[in-house]
Specification:
mainly beta, five-stranded antiparallel β-sheet, about 100 residues
């Protein structure tokens, strides 16, 4: 799998460092159709660089393992974005989506 041309926010759901290769389980986010919710989906407000937040929807049913390398985890300008913690106010919707996706 090759990274696409557009940087997308990702939610790290798991970590594996077996076989000497560090990998993370990722659910990618989208800013499309954030007012609707499907099975295993939830929407958050990301506060990138302390600017006005942007709604981002994650689908926990669509997830993949990626090697933890700069190739997959840097933006178009070559910089690695600052990680954000999922705010407490979104934990219930995350847990509901995780249950629907069979993660818990």
């Amino acid at each position: 799998m090759q990274p696409g041309p557009k940087f997308r926010p990702g939610l790290i759901l798991g970590f594996d460092d077996s076989n000497g290769r560090r990998k993370v389980l990722v659910a990618y986010g989208t800013s499309q159709r954030t007012n609707s919710r499907g099975c295993g989906e939830f929407t958050v407000l990301l506060e990138r660089n302390n600017l006005e937040g942007k709604k981002t929807k994650f689908c926990l049913k669509k997830r993949l393992w990626l090697e933890l390398t700069p190739e997959y985890f840097r933006s178009g300008n070559g910089k690695q974005p600052e990680p954000e913690t999922l705010a407490q106010e979104f934990m219930k919707s995350f847990m509901d989506a995780a249950q629907e996706a069979g993660l818990i």
